[in-house]
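Exam prep: given the inputs below (a chain plus iron/sulfur cluster), describe the expected output before reading on.
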Amino acid sequence: MSGKGPAGIAVRILTLGCAKNSVDAEVLTGLLVKAGCRIVSRSPADVGIVNTCGFIRDAKEESIGEILAMAREKERGRIRRLVVAGCLAKRYREELPGALPEVDLFVGPGDIPALPGLLRGLFAGAQPRSFVGTAALPEEAYRHRYREKGEASAYLKIQEGCDHRCAYCTIPDIRGPLASRDRDSLLAEVRMLVRRGAREINLVGQDITSYGAERGEKRGLARLVRALCAIRGIRWVRLLYLYPGRIDDELIDLVAEGGKVCRYLDIPVQHIDARVLAGMGRRYGPDEVWALLARLRERVPGIFLRTSLIVGFPGESAAAFDRLLRFVHESRWDYLGVFPYSREEGTPACAMERQVGEAVKRERARRVQDAQIDILAARNAGMVGEEVEVLVEEARGDGRAVGRHRGQAPEVDGNVLLSGTGASPGRFCRARVTGARAWDLLAKPVDTGYSPGILP
Ligand code: SF4
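Solution:
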């Protein structure tokens, strides 16, 4: 700890929320390292930064909990200055400074590039506590994205904000209107990620199918993915967060071609009842969802599909929920996340009548989860005997390792538990599935020599 920052100061960053926020945290880390800061994983530290999430109640409560935990560390002298960044800081920029006097500085998601200079001011004492301005991170900030060497899986945030304005969603107010990132800058970022060891690139945004739409681009996502696949060294390209009503034939062909593009799509449909979908402001109906599922499964046999559902949206009757539960049973998504509707001030749905009680919401979410557990267990059991390509992510000693196959996205879809392998993290191996658990697969390598490593 030396002088009045930022060079040489120790900074601890805690990131919450979605993959987009973790990309922001890597940009933040890179900017601080460039300014001479030391990044530490735990206290003591000169500065503690909580990079928050703020879009629904549970996420807000988690963020506040972590801020207060850091504030207690500050009281005990284990950190000297406390900074709150991210979506909560943006969404409640008026309220938070008064509500959290323990916090020395609030910065919004788009203000990260100013942070090194603001840290200097923090130790000089004389500066405003709240520095929350623009929504989107400037493009050049991504050039400083920090990556540990050898991390094989990376998220690529291809856009900021969203133009859909679904009735329950706060993201357009927090992250602003759709702002698609510059293609060349994205390709340069991916080359950097590959040099740092990335072999899997997971495309994320609020709705990646709208990439380039605000600047009048047609087929923007498909063209970006083709350009990405031409980059030497990438093995897997995964598409996450696709708006159901915007998945066209070209995109399906791209996934069907296989190659580097994983036969995997994450398509949040949110519900299946026509009236509930209309109330949500989703621009598709049940027939479009069923037609899309049929087209995908016919054109891409064996495709892995993930979705998200919201239960308890205002006006969701018992009959509408029964339709949703039947949909879960009949549509058989491989992976499914279900969320009780979170009433968020400032959204159209917040003022809607026929709000559903918390206990009913939780009960409906539990019933959907129970149904999905059986579906995933059956899906996994059906893979026993299959040979899969596995990206090894963690070695656990005595020949055991943890990885994922192409049909498993990072963090959310379970893992492949390998035994009898010498493959090290960041390498691929071919393995035969020997068993299935509710969430994970068990497998043994069939060709440990196999590792594509650097690929054309
Ligand atoms: S598409 Fe997603 S991010 Fe955009 S408004 Fe709807 S729910 Fe929110």
